[in-house]
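In the current project phase, our protein records have gained a structure token line. A sample record follows, to show the layout:
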Amino acid sequence: MGLFSRLFGKEKARVKTRAKKAAQSHPKAAKAASKVKEKAEHAREHASHAKAAVVTAAHQQALTLHMLTHIPSHHPREDDPHYHLFEQAKERLKRQGLWKCVIDDELCDGQPELHHTHVEFSQINQVDPKAIEKHLGLHFETDEDFQEWVESPGNLEVLCANHHRAHYGIHVIPGPLWEAVRYHKKGTKAAAEFISNDEAKDLADKSKD
């Protein structure tokens, strides 16, 4: 190592030592230096993650869903003393020009139907009104109030047959996927669709070809 290199190296070390002492003697300077170091490390980490990121290609994934539903005893809908409220809501929606699927996109098909949004009629004896109150910010003075609410506009929405019970139906597609169907972007594939056993078998056979 030459004379100038040794002298320069010693001077560099002295400058580094003085800077370190200055940072220690000035808290604000030390804090600023720490922030700069933190940002630099964050930038390096972000660049590393971006470099390692892998984009998942678009694909179809078959899902077989078996469910065991528990339906408590209940009277037929027509015998429900509050059923007339359901019919009144339907007529009111028609008069107001709202008798159409609330989703209203290119996937709609079939006649409009009224869907129980939060509580299905068949589950009315198996849900806790207090939990409904807490979740939706409601208040029922009596059980009668709750029973009436189940058949009221607050628990009803209009869906076409396709979005209610059929191909893109809320009754046949798991909730997280159906919520994406509800907000489906025009021109893209729906997040999920219901297919029959025969259709599933045809798809499986085609995948083997």
